[in-house]
What does this fold into?
Amino acid sequence: MLLTLWVVFTTSFFLMRAVPGGPFDSDRKLDGEIKKNIERRYHLDEPLEMQYWRELRNYLRGDLGYPYKLQDHTVNGVIREGLPVSAALGLLALAFAMSLGLVAGITSATRRGSPADVMLMTLATIGIALPNFVVAGLAILCFVFLIPLFPAAGWGSFHQLVLPALCLGAPHAADVARITRTSMLDVFSQDHIRTARAKGLSRARVIWCHALPGALLPVVSYLGPATAYVLTGSLVIEQIFAIPGLGSHFVEAALQRDYTMALGCVMLYTVILSTMNLLVDLSYAVLDPRVELK
Amino acid sequence: MQNRVVISVVLLVLALSAVAWAVLRVQLPPADFTFVNETEPKSLDWALVTGLPEHRIIGSIFEGLTRLHPKTLAPLPGAAESWEISDDKKSYTFHLRKNARWSNGKAVTAHDFIYSLRRFLDPSTAAEYAYQAWYLKNARRYSVGAKGISAGDPVEVELNERPKGSRPFARGVVLRGKLIEKEGDDDHRVFIVEIEGRRHKYRSGDKGDLNQGIAPCKQVLLDFHEVGVRAIDDYTLEMRLADPTPYWLELLAYHALLPVNRECLETYGSPAWTQAEHIVTNGPYRVAFRRIRDRVRLVRNNYYWDPERPKLEVIDALAINSQVTVYNLFATGKVDWITDAPALVLRELIKTGAAKKEFNPQPYLGTYYYLLNTNRKPLDDVRVRRALTLALNREEITRTATGSGEVPAHSLVPLGIPGYTPERFGKEDVQEAQRLLAEAGYPNGRGFPKLEILYNTHQAHQTIAQLVRKQWEKNLGITVSTRNEEWGSYQTSIRKFVFDAARRAWIADYVDPNSHLDMMVTDGENNNTGWSNAEYDKLIAAARAETDEARRFTLFHQAERILMDEVPIVPIYYYVDKNQVRSSVRGFYRNPLDQHPLSELSRAPEMPADAR
It folds into this structure.
């Protein structure tokens, strides 16, 4: 994991420096000395490898530096403010995706071939196919303008969270539904289910206690990266609903050549992603009796 | 099995309480007035910013010597109660109000302004707008550092150590003396300074050189006492300018010349002093809190001197980038003022005319134009440049591409400066354009190299570039291509002259033709065309020294005629403001600088915020 982090850090660092245009291409041309002064403050006048080692040392100490564009803050501060926002939104979206996806997946697996199954799976396919911003646009049209239930954007109350969480969760719900359905059907065909049925257990008990735990494993492995993804914020949803989460910081940083801020976001994303994958592996031990922690 | 269930339940509960915590943490009482301030302010330190979103907030939490009338933009007394101007218009004496207070309750004095001005000009502050204060005598020499001093000048040496007992971020010890000599190049300069009859050697940096008797220092600058500003007493401030500058009182209201609180700055240092819990301000509002890329909340500053203002207690400035979202918020009544909306929406609003009260675009002092790179062939030929401007149908552009009632532009100086009406240059004349192009050696565009239009990535710029391309190709028979670059790279390309024609816009900093015209002087920092004309430079310089307004404007007219005759730039249209303001809001005036002081705003009674 440390190696991954280092590789990501190094690649991002040099990639960002390689793009033409610096962070101080402001509208007005700066006088030579003034420009030199600013560059000295941010150590941009040093050779590239010096900048690299300085940055790496600071990262090891947990100091992510100062963003170029949000000059009143530190990168740590921006992440400290942005991450909980994205996390809250992401958790809500995940909760929604899980509950809806599981229910839909189980329903269509148990009624395989029925109209309900066809309908749910069509919906899921559409859900996966439709990009976020289309879903968001439709949702805004329906629930803000046609039926004024929710505010169009903003951050500050539970009310304002509902729509973005729904839109962020929708494709994940669709994914979860499809995965659940497939793995449920897979489990149904296995011997221990036949045994359970043969014992005369009720249908519900077979589904909930014997089939579901096994069928959940693929869902869990999907959840790992999905969690990392929603936790660090969805840029599109955050932009549309004006949510001050990490996603918007990341996009803005990249667009405005804010090297330090962008690097901070990339690293955070990497950390979360690899941690989540690790957690997924660990959770197998809890969920699947066949896997032993050694 | 039991284990697994317990773990799952614990995880679920943890997740849900995390959501609840994150949501509850951000619950807010609503503000009295909410507006969309485009993007997150880069900083609240006015010395470090140049943008409009920053200005909207900084202009209401700080107050300069003067402030502008919200409608006419005439300078009104701000922190200064009154002032006298000398007969040669170069010397100003300001009398500060005795009841002006910082938000920590202490008095605002002349020394605060001097401290702020010095910091603003200090090269190590790196204020991008420092040149706004260069009208003051010797201010430029002070702020360019070593370049501004030569042998025999009085100088100040700032040491790296702070005076004993000073605050943690105070300036280093300052020694004053006379510069005897500066040796060496930019990187290793040694200053020989005579202080109290003894010669000392200094070098800027952390280390000196003991063997050669060179002491380290932070920097050597012109003695600040030479700069044209001094405090006569605690409440009287004198400023001496290098030239009579008719718009000086307006510039003083601008965010570049505001005061900062010395105690606050020296205690917390930059940038920590701008945090909501530290910052000390003297304007009608103070900062309650800031949430990054969400909002800045302003509340009334109870120490402000004017009991009449501000009229609203709490104001939220939202940072939202997506234009569609911005318009959705306005349309659903969640915000009271937005500064822009998607072009499609605006065009529709104009067509229906339904929202006349809330959306009423008026021209202001901004011009959208194309730069022509006169360093490149064939654009170095003035006939080619003239042909390009004559071949444009600007009406088609403003009608189809912009659509909020923008006015076709035929000059660099926009309409709306009282007493100054720019002439109309380069009206469409395709035949004349073709004739000029043939004369330059490209009959019907034959042999004309491919011309490229550069613009920064934005839907509106793209539409306009495509239209211009079409018109030039059709009318002149030349081949034109377009290239878009993201803002940062676009800036670099312009600066390095890697373009043929490029999109550009300029909005006035003050109501005067000079704001637009002086950037086109030879090597002007925003000239960006490589164009240079000695006669033009002379006229602009003459206008700077002229005190009679009629004669000044004649000089500007002459200068602009030269400019438009030589066509280093092709004007396209003049800006209109795109503000939409809820009809219950009072005190919002459309004015030539598109500036709207928050402290003047109020709300008509009995009109709920979302009365739609």
User: Anything to note?
Assistant: Residues 183 and 369 of chain B are 45 Å apart (CA to CA).
